[in-house]
Amino acid sequence: MKVVIDTNVYLSSLLFKGKAREAYDLCIESSDVFISDFIIDEVSDKLQYKFSLSSKAVKDILNSISAVVENIKPTTPLPNVCRDKDDNHILQLCETVSADFLITGDKDLLVLENYKSTSIISPAEFMKLF
Prior knowledge:
With about 130 residues, this protein is α/β, with parallel strands linked by helices. About 55% of the residues lie in helices and about 15% in strands. It has a 6-stranded mixed beta sheet, with helices on both faces. The model has no long low-confidence stretch (mean pLDDT about 95).
């Protein structure tokens, strides 16, 4: 199974307990998980500026993520379907890798429900499926 995890799920799974952490752990154990530089940069920025983690802590977290996911440079055209234009980068990655699932808590993405071959679901919905 191919999965893309959105920035907000990475942040929730790293900083809090709950469905996001459960979904992240399950994905890492049982799926091919893909990430892009766009998501890495978003995670880095949020950890540093929103959650005030040190540069070393951010680097350690990003290294732990990079060790278990595959970083892909999207090759498909950037779509223009999201209310939040930045979210189009997430959909571009999904299309490039033909992801089965995009796991997100972002309402701007969840309202789409699907994008091409990708089902867009919350961590809680993902856990119900598996």
